[in-house]
Design a protein that fits this description.
With 357 residues, the protein is mostly helical. It is built from 13 helices and two strands; from the N terminus they run αααββαααααααααα. A two-stranded antiparallel ribbon has the order 1-2. 46% of the residues are buried.
Length: 357
């Protein structure tokens, strides 16, 4: 009742959530399970909205250790397609949380250096580059798209954190060499990645790497200005992952062109609001973190939509606040809660003093 955060960000989150209820129920017939996931999501959002993100940054070294533990746990607990861990029989995807923790830590580290008026030393710069490369490589073993999103978001934070261009360019060069190495050696899910690239470039579906994209395009093509209505989708019935990785195609087929474009517009507005929150923040940490969160969400949303419309090769990426999934909703709630916390922080000058200690 005494909400002081960015109301537009909150409104966008609520609108996307309402759309999610309709499209997920239409696709699966499940409502109560999805509702429970959203209750947990909004509880996490409320919690992190009230926790001071600056004072919580004292735990940054422990958060980096947590990200490291989660990464090794995830990679050691499954095969090439594994993207999470099992706790009490519940599968939890961890890569979104790991990515957020990495962005939080590098934003904290850069803000401390900038607030002290200290130029980032070569050793510190290489340390940041090493952290980013390590986590991107670990995630890329089973989830290339999330690794790419983490890499691009990290580059944005490094650029805004005034890291020298030579370190950023070196980071790009190492990543390009690494991707080429994966392509040649076939480590992890490289073969799947190569198959999807091959289909995208040649439209040769001999190995069935394009099955989902063909159905997704057909679902979108079937839509029009007049919505077919919830439950009236035909092609979605044959579409795998219709409530997760290809939920946008499902939404487009049943809700029509206008709602489909509205969803795209909302993700772009979310980025502009995050940019505005970052610009208004006099605290360096808040500026870097807000831009990191805003870029991550928008990039994830655009990648999902681009895959569904075959603008880029297929990859498994959920649509924030619309796709079904407890872990993805939980971590999305955490990130939006932190963004809202940044927007409500009135004493930003004091935040800079705290970060400079």
């Amino acid at each position: 009742m005494n909400f002081k955060g960015d109301k537009i960000v909150l409104a966008i989150t609520i609108i996307l959530s309402l759309i999610s209820f309709i499209v997920v129920y239409s696709s699966t017939g499940v409502i109560w399970g999805h509702l429970k996931h959203f209750l947990v999501c909004y509880a996490a959002m409320a919690f992190f909205y009230h926790i001071n993100y600056v004072k919580a940054s004292v735990s940054a070294p422990f958060l980096l250790l947590l990200a490291l533990i989660l990464l090794f746990w995830t990679l050691l607990s499954g095969g090439e397609a594994n993207r999470g861990v099992s706790i009490g029989g519940i599968d939890i995807q961890t890569f979104y949380l790991i990515g957020f923790l990495v962005i939080y830590v590098i934003s904290y580290f850069l803000a401390r250096q900038l607030n002290r008026g200290i130029e980032l030393s070569p050793r510190a710069s290489w340390t940041l580059v090493g952290i980013i490369l390590f986590f991107c490589a670990g995630i890329a073993y089973t989830n290339m798209s999330t690794s790419i999103i983490l890499f691009l978001t990290s580059v944005v934070v490094l650029f805004l954190g005034k890291v020298r261009p030579k370190y950023i360019l070196t980071l790009f060069a190492i990543v390009i060499i690494g991707v080429a190495g994966l392509w040649v050696t076939g480590i992890g899910r490289a073969e799947t990645f190569k198959g999807r690239i091959h289909y995208y470039l040649t439209q040769d579906n001999t190995d069935h790497y394009g099955d989902q994209m063909i159905l997704a395009k057909a679902a979108i093509a079937r839509s029009g200005l007049t919505p077919a209505g919830p439950g009236q989708g035909v092609i979605k019935k044959s579409l795998p992952e219709k409530e997760t990785d290809y939920v946008y195609a499902t939404l487009f087929e049943e809700a029509g062109l206008l709602i489909g474009l509205l969803v795209l517009f909302l993700y772009l507005v979310l980025y502009t609001r995050a940019y505005k929150i970052a610009r208004k923040s006099k605290g360096t940490f808040g500026m870097l973190l807000a831009m990191g969160i805003g870029f991550w969400f928008t990039c994830q949303g655009l990648v999902h939509i681009a895959v569904n419309t075959e603008l880029i090769p297929a990859t498994g990426q959920t649509l924030p606040f619309i796709s079904r999934g407890g872990a993805s909703l939980l971590f999305s709630g955490i990130m939006i809660g932190v963004l809202l916390n940044i927007s409500r922080n009135d004493n930003l000058e004091e935040s800079d003093e705290y970060m400079g200690k």
